Amino acid sequence: MLSGKSSNSMRDNYGTHGVENYYRMVQESYRNPHYLGLKRVLTQFMDQYVAQEKPKRIKVLDLAAGSGEATEILLQWKAARWPSAAPPPATAPPASTEPPAAPAPSASSLASPASASPLPSRPPFIPPARQFPQRAVSRPTRPSAQPSLPAPELSIVATDPYTAPAYRARTGLPCSELSFADVAAGKLPAPGATEPPAEGGEDVVEPFDLVVISFALHLVETSSELWALLDQLSKRARWLCVTAPHKKPDVKDSWGWRRWDPSSAWKPADGTERVGGEQGDGAEIVLERVRLRPRHPTHLGAISFRRLAVGCSVAMSALPRAVPVPRDLPARALVLVDGNAVLPDRSNLLRGAQGGGLASYALHENLRRAVSQHCGRECHGTVMLFADIPQLAIALRIPAEVLSQFSRGFSSTSTPSTFVNVMQGSTLSTMNGHLAFHARAIDYVVLVGWTTDMHAHWLSNLVPTTLVNLSNVLRVETAQPAAPSLVKLVPKSVRFHGLMDAMSAAPPVRDITDPPSDHEEGEGIDHEEIGASPREPAKKANGGTIATPQPAPSTPTRAPSTRSSSIASSPDAALRSIPGVRCLAPSLLEEPPQLDKTAAQALPLTPPRPSAGAGAPAAAAAPAFTFPSARASASTSPPAPAPSPAPVALPRPPPVPEKYLPLLRTLLSLSPLASSPPALWSAVGTQLQRDGALPATKLSVFFGAAQKDGWVSTGRGDKEGREWVRISARGRRAMGRG
């Protein structure tokens, strides 16, 4: 094919011929004019990469390989650093832009036989007084950068849709013709394979260790195409190196990759790096006008689902074995993954919660198997992903308004969050119905990506509902350090190296670290009740009071294990020590005040749960028992009861008007527990329409009238469509929920 006329300026070539036409013209003669700079920056990065990661094998994907410049540099780098290793495959001499060391002989001199014989040479005469001491000369190539490290096995896969002929001619290695669009569509084969992985397959695809894109990523035209490419690569590779003579393109952290510090610190870039001198931005290698920016995946991709499942299995084995009441009931396990911190394969995991996604389904099944094997019986478990709605909307290409309505829009902030929805009491009934937790608590809870004070606040809200027992809660440690409040609340943790590697570059949590607002903390406690008489006995989510914590005759009992003694010793102290966290009900793990130490140790860690079996004791046989607000002393005799303040008589609210009853019932059905987060107007209107109680007037007029009468409170979000409404304290008392 004709090479065509081209300019030394790539910008002129692109403007004259177009990108595709230009590379078709030079598909056999293309050479990168920045070869020297590319060689220096790539060599420096590989030295640091091997020193820090110490890989035994490096599987490289040379994407948009050109004429094989990056491949040739990597082969020469290995040969120079480990001379004793096997020589690399034979390649054609590089078409470098370096000037020749000596002028080439002319044709006449080659034809003359006399000139072929070497002539005697003599050294030049230098006066003794003019001699200078010899100085050591540093060479650019040294024998070995890391002599103590073994030579890694290097394998390279190359692809370029235009210049594959030039790559094969220069390197003598195969080169496929996949484009950026093909890679984004999932057509990239695994290392050593010739066919792309099966679509929707459950098998984990072997990832590449390093993807090198030289002077080509900026050619992707639209940001959506760039996001699709980078998101797919983040699931198929561990490292990404982008080289270019400029700073384009702008890759966002939410696209699957995060900037990395290529210095000896070797850590996620946080703005304090000083690499590249004045020409760089601190987190890039800049040499010979060539920039290299390394990146690391920011979320768990499809390659890490198995790691997550194995990590959950390890976590389950570290928890004490739960004894169900009655014994024939299956175990209940729950894995809570904070998507804002780790962002697993978001679309697959979210679809898996709706009944699809083979990778997510495999994760659910592995969780059930792990718990079933640990408990010796069947397990019902689930994996719940929480993430900020705007982030999920961008990742799933769904309008944020639609996703907000799908999650019913419960939030105390202007940005609804599904994390807030479940951690508040608004959707606990939905979670109970989905997991069949109506009559019993969760046996195992594994927290992945829970690191902040807000996580501790939400977890403390679950403890008084009797759904969560702190002795059966465990954290999976990641590279993100956990807040001291969360460590106090859940001191038991497991460190799984493979899972930590996958989460090592998790971005910091941004949207869930705000201090709790009045809607999140203490919601449902009227101002008149503060400082009044002690609260009533703790109520279960499905109604009724907690029975006396005495083991039934047919109920097996167990003593606290050594692994859970540290948590069961003082759970309330950990809860009350968290700033901004209020215990709405006494802890269920306190020892009865009138039992001695021996009898107390015979009690189960959790109170017996009511059951409908034939052998269950009658309700009258177990008198109601009210937990004290403070822990009793260790003496055998009960202490004298402290005088309690006289209860404050609350004014009896007037009856609810008939026109507002459907509205208040709807708000209570959306938030059955003590907390009442606001709900979007659209969600309430949809529920009223389903119940056949939609008012004839506009929702804004109807809610405004209800607020004027004191039954609800309303507010407007940060933009149109975010208006919210919630039941007032007066409305809760009038409906018998005060």
Automatic annotation (TrEMBL):
Residues 85-103, 638-653 have a biased composition (Pro residues). Transmembrane segments: none annotated. Residues 511-530 have a biased composition (Basic and acidic residues). InterPro entries: DUF7923, SAM-dependent_MTases_sf. The lineage of its organism: Eukaryota, Fungi, Dikarya, Basidiomycota, Pucciniomycotina. It comes from Rhodotorula diobovata. It holds the Pfam family DUF7923. Residues 104-119, 545-573 have a biased composition (Low complexity). Residues 333-499 form the DUF7923 domain. PANTHER family: KERATINOCYTE PROLINE-RICH PROTEIN (PTHR48148), PA14 DOMAIN-CONTAINING PROTEIN (PTHR48148:SF2). Residues 84-153, 505-573, 630-653 are annotated as: Disordered. This is DUF7923 domain-containing protein.
